[in-house]
Design goal:
Two copies of one chain form a homodimer. By secondary structure, chain A is α+β, with helices and mostly antiparallel strands. Chain A contains eight helices and 16 strands.
Chain lengths: 284, 284
């Protein structure tokens, strides 16, 4: 596993990722009682660091995990330790280790903290951004707190695997007839030059790229509407693209085996990606 | 932690539970990609062993985790190794260890197997069975595959903790106006001498105690109906009880701070518990 050359920080101790072992009584292992973040590293620096650490604090508060630190320095330190220029940081904080019991009432636990930085030898979405990806629609049967970034991710895993088995790269999740998000991305559609994306709710994660794009597109004078998107609108969209930390802006050019718009990466997705590229280029 | 005196079996190796460490890249740790069972041990023997191993195989099939063994012998061995007479077995099988990726498409992973037996110094539900417990109702915002016994349990944990904070011991979960189950139990109501419990669906786990009670009550000539139970019916029930491996039959005598029926452990709950007691007494 290439992961053996990654240096992880586990509760402040540095060691190869493949040699990090957690107690099985860690609540992440038996209850998915943990939160996480994934950050993209460009030019040796984490992109949108404060957006990620702010969201992490919100996740910790929602879960009432008391981890009294900002994690910004810990992230920077791990990137430096791995000497990663292009890559991603994974940061997971679990509630802690305790005898197995669903309830954590009155338990005073010490959170466990895992951080590692994985290098990218090439842009992980280069090919997909060029050709676009195939998507499927799928019922969103995840839990009702997808706004908290937790490791309660089994539905996401099962659905993404199913998408792959269908020859697709991502699933667009539909709850009660409307689009929520992808299994690990947010969803935008474009219709008549207007960018449309589902509003924040407990059914979607407020993606850092999602907000970056909304703000950037608005600032550049484009129309962006946050509103519910009916499943049927997907099939009438001029363009569909997903946004994520790793996939950045990636076009969905085929959905449920039907072409989306012209079936190619469209100008509005390119325009959105260009906003990101500009911001990355401007990083100091 | 008392857990240090428990001998666990981890991938076939015996060691103290508190010294079992799993790779953080185990998918249980980052994705709750694991299934489990909890069995009750009476008189040194697992109760309803085949019901549990059968359900475990169903969970493994649903999740497409290939663990080509029955686990019955492994369970018996661990009970013997711990010399437990009264207690419980915890068995967890995770998909395996891999670089982090939601999708497990085309991954050939080796499942990780954890088994441990925890002794009970006293009956863990003795007091609660005598006095009954307090319950609250709570929105069921768990995922849509609660029929598979997985570690995707964060909602259960958050809701059970909330119940404890409200001074209650269990939450009865309500989805779309009807009862699904407890956070770690099935729910029965009794009205006019008839036992009523929600039918099997993707929103409830088919509890081994639930089925044992349905079969036993029917065999003893009682009326048992499996049908949807409206939330409002809870407050008009003569009795409510939960069933679980550890709690067995435990009466909910107060719900949302209102007495259930006469507000005491009722005759039908006692009758149901007696069926269990008889079966335990008859164990050889």
């Amino acid at each position: 596993m290439n992961e053996s050359s990654i240096i992880a920080s586990y509760n402040g101790k540095s060691l190869p990722l493949t040699e990090v072992f957690a107690p099985v009584l860690d609540r992440a292992f038996m209850f998915s009682d943990a939160v996480y973040e994934v950050l993209r590293v460009y030019k040796g620096k984490p992109f949108l660091l404060s957006a990620h650490t702010t969201r992490l604090q919100a996740s910790l508060r929602s879960m009432r995990i008391a981890a009294n630190q900002d994690f910004g320095d810990a992230i920077l330190n791990n990137i430096a330790e791995n000497q990663v220029k292009e890559g991603m940081v994974y940061l997971q904080i679990s509630r802690g280790v305790a005898p197995r019991n669903h309830s954590f009432f009155a338990m005073e636990l010490k959170p466990s903290i895992l951080i590692y930085t994985k290098p990218f030898l090439e842009h992980p979405a280069a090919k997909e951004q060029q050709t676009g990806i195939k998507g499927i629609t799928h019922e969103d049967y995840r839990w009702g707190r997808c706004d908290i970034k937790t490791t309660n991710l089994l539905a996401n895993c099962l659905i993404q695997t199913h998408a792959n088995e269908m020859g697709a790269q991502e699933a667009i999740l539909i709850r009660n007839g409307v689009v929520s998000e992808g299994t690990s991305s947010n969803v935008f559609i474009v219709k008549n030059g207007i960018f449309i994306t589902p509003p924040k709710s407990t059914f979607i994660l407020a993606g850092t790229r999602r907000q970056f794009l909304i703000d950037g597109l608005l600032a550049a004078g484009h129309s962006v509407i946050e509103r519910q998107v009916e499943k049927t609108e997907l099939f009438n969209a001029d363009e569909i693209f997903i946004s994520s930390t790793v996939k950045e802006v990636t076009s969905v050019v085929q959905l449920d085996q039907k072409p989306v718009g012209k079936g190619i990466v469209g100008p509005f997705a390119k325009l959105a990606q260009a906003l990101l590229d500009d911001a990355i280029l401007a990083m100091k």
